[in-house]
Specification:
Rossmann fold, 4-stranded parallel β-sheet, globular, 6-stranded mixed β-sheet, 15 helices
């Protein structure tokens, strides 16, 4: 399991290797929502998302024999880039199974970091394809989210938030497989037990919501969302258990609501998020989820790996 001591240990592992991302206040967006809003800009992290935190933690704890076997994973893009980046730094071979249709920028960046990319046509069966590669070549599988070391690394986001803003009343976190929110929840409950934690998923990839409804981690039969960074085909077993026990609520947002949250982040924070990075703000702009009264709210901007070709479509037509 993951505990606060493990997250502090993960911070020691990654110290000096990654960016301590800023926590920025937005007066304009605070006025729109009616609460003081601070934004944790993980889009400014190495590789453009929070993902290297967990991957660097995990690789540091592999044995020399495990590293020699090479690594394999599944990813729609952000975990792929992070693993490729960290594997190259450690001198380790890396293979990533990605879905056909993953953003071209994420595929190209993963390859540029030195990983072998295998494109698979069915997002729902990505893990099956990955297991085939693992069995054929003896690779070590690095989960995108369902691993104590990965969760501990992602939990360092929570440590930084509460060091920079100890008076925070709530944190709003996007959910894919659940690694980020699980790590933040463990960190927050260990430091500030009464902090409110709200998770946000796209309606087209509701793995965690359905897991909470079913009482166990579930696999999805289909996925359809613009937020590829949140399009995990299943919820992690460990992640589900942590969310069930430590997270106050999880809400769903539509693709249209996610898209509508991108321009305000560009206009008022001067950052360009990918759709996954705008999902948490989308929940607040639409009034989804009930937050406790008073106190500042922290919104996680989880990633910024957006194909420039897609950007115009989110901004809409230019004014006449």
């Amino acid at each position: 399991m993951v505990d606060l001591n493990g997250i502090y240990a993960a911070r020691d592992v990654i110290r000096g290797k990654l960016v301590r991302t800023p926590l920025l206040f937005s007066e304009a967006l605070s006025e729109r929502v009616g609460r003081p809003l601070y934004f944790k800009l993980e889009n400014l992290q190495q590789t453009g998302s929070f993902k290297p935190r967990g991957v660097l933690t995990k690789i540091a704890r592999l044995s020399a024999a495990e590293k020699a076997r090479g690594l394999v994973t599944i990813s729609a893009g952000n975990h792929a880039q992070a693993l490729a980046y960290a594997a190259r730094a450690a001198g380790v071979r890396c293979t990533v199974v990605m879905p056909v249709g993953a953003p071209a920028t994420k595929i190209a960046n993963t390859q540029a970091y030195g990983a072998t990319v295998i494109l698979h046509p069915d997002r729902v069966t990505l893990l099956d394809r990955c297991r085939q590669e693992q069995e054929a070549h003896g690779y070590v599988y690095i989960s995108p989210f369902d691993d104590p070391d990965i969760i501990a690394g992602q939990g360092t986001v929570g440590l930084e938030i509460l060091e920079d803003l100890p008076e925070a009343a709530a944190i709003v976190v996007p959910i894919g497989g659940g690694g980020l929110i699980a790590g933040i929840a463990v960190a927050a409950r260990g430091i500030l037990p009464d902090l409110y934690i709200l998770g946000v998923e796209p309606e087209g990839a509701p793995a965690m919501v359905r897991s909470l409804q079913a009482g166990h981690a579930v696999h999805l039969d289909q996925i359809q969302t613009i937020a590829d960074g949140l399009a995990a085909p299943f919820a992690g077993e460990l992640n589900y258990a942590i969310v069930r026990d430590l997270v106050d609520a999880v809400v769903l947002v539509t693709d249209e609501e996610i898209a509508a949250a991108i321009p305000p982040l560009i206009e008022w924070l001067k950052v360009v998020p990918e759709p996954a990075g705008a999902a948490a703000l989308a929940a607040l702009l639409t009034g989804k989820g009930t937050l406790p009264p008073g106190g500042p709210v922290v919104v996680i901007v989880s990633g910024g790996n957006l194909d420039l070709a897609r950007l115009a479509g989110f901004l809409g037509p230019a004014p006449a």
